[in-house]
UniProtKB/TrEMBL annotation:
It catalyses: L-arginine + H2O = urea + L-ornithine. Belongs to the arginase family. Keywords: Arginine metabolism, Hydrolase, Manganese, Metal-binding, Urea cycle. GO terms for cellular component: cytosol; nucleus. InterPro entries: Arginase, Ureohydrolase, Ureohydrolase_dom_sf, Ureohydrolase_Mn_BS. It is an enzyme of class 3 (hydrolase). This is Arginase. The lineage of its organism: Eukaryota, Fungi, Fungi incertae sedis, Mucoromycota, Mucoromycotina. It comes from Circinella minor. Pathway: Nitrogen metabolism; urea cycle; L-ornithine and urea from L-arginine: step 1/1. The keyword Manganese applies. Its cofactor is Mn(2+). Its EC number is 3.5.3.1.
Length: 313
């Protein structure tokens, strides 16, 4: 039996919250990610590690919350649907976290970071955020070249985004100095400007090559969590991994993290005893082919297990 990954988590109870949303980006299929991870056996795997699982699929909820009419507002696509889903589920995340459960959210596109991060920070205001991704997802409504909200959650969570009528519920809960990126390699010009201006700590793949993943995680933690006393939320976009490792994802970018580098991040964060929650997002089982989908789902499950303490001695 493995240890609990966090001194903030009293018992080995994990809330597994599916967020089957695709409205933050244009490709169908990503809404099937959570169900596929569960179908593959994720809950049983966690139970075998000694965790009591509390699963919410949210499948009916997400469908029910789709508005009849959802036109672009200030450049953003499907803002009402994304807003309604993330606002509602943010409350589920908050109450599970306050309950002392580890919160594992499964995606779904990365707009769901609005739900997970705002929910976790409502429960743990002094938390920090480790965002593992090929992308920085910090576009504002004005800077976004695509209008896809999965490229924007960090801008809302840090309060950098321009006022947007559908996202006024998102409190600027995240201090830019409590955020660190790992795995970046495809950043829009507007995002680069924001990252520079706000002095946000970012480790691109260049830094992973230069220092090695062990050192990168150490320096990242020294920055956001110098005294190793803050709760940690990990948001893991599977496109941070190389497409040869996680091919079934909507915005793959060459030159990503290896299988071990990705798992090392999860293991090292679990090892701190400070990890309270994690997202595994952007698993799209409809992309490429069946083998690719199987491989990506398998990786998603093993990343989740590592967050919950698998491979800690
Ligand atoms: N979560 C993701 N995969 N995000 C990709 C974002 C791509 C691009 N930067 C955009 O804003 O449209
Ligand atoms: Mn992302
Ligand atoms: Mn990404």
């Amino acid at each position: 039996m493995t240890a609990t990954p966090s001194k903030f988590i009293k018992s080995k109870d994990v809330a597994v919250i599916g967020i089957p949303i695709n409205a933050g980006q244009p490709r169908q299929g990503v809404e099937k990610g959570p169900a596929k991870l569960i179908e593959f056996g994720l809950l049983n795997q966690l139970e075998e590690m000694g965790w009591k699982t509390h699963h919410t699929s949210n499948e009916e909820l997400v469908v029910k919350l789709q508005p009849k009419h959802d036109p672009d507002v200030l450049n953003l696509k499907q803002p009402k649907w994304v807003s309604a889903v993330t606002k509602t589920i943010s409350e589920q995340v908050r109450s599970s976290a306050i309950d002392g459960k580890f919160v594992l959210t499964l995606g779904g596109d990365h707009s769901l970071g609005l739900a997970s991060v705002s929910g976790v920070f409502a429960a743990y205001p002094d938390a920090c955020l480790i965002w593992v991704d090929a992308h920085s997802d910090i576009n504002t409504p004005a800077s976004s070249p695509s209008g896809n909200i999965h490229g924007c959650p960090i801008a809302f969570l840090t309060g950098i985004a321009e006022d947007h009528p559908d996202f006024r519920w998102v409190k600027p809960c995240l201090d830019a100095q409590r955020l660190v990126y790992i795995g970046l390699r495809d950043i829009d010009d507007g995002e680069k400007k924001i990252i520079k201006e706000k002095n946000i700590k970012a480790f691109s793949m260049h830094h992973v090559d230069k220092y090695g993943i062990g050192k990168v995680v150490d320096i990242a933690l020294d920055h956001v969590n110098p005294d190793r006393n803050r709760p940690i939320h990990l948001s893991f976009d599977v496109d941070a991994l190389d497409p040869s490792v996680a091919p079934s994802t909507g915005t793959p970018v060459r030159g990503g993290l290896t299988f071990r580098e990705g798992h090392y991040i999860c293991e090292a964060l679990a090892e701190t005893g400070l990890l309270v929650s994690a997202d595994i997002v952007e698993v799209n089982p409809d992309l490429v082919d069946e083998m690719a989908a199987f491989q990506t789902i398998q990786v998603g499950c093993s990343l989740a297990r590592c967050c919950l303490g698998e491979s800690l001695l």
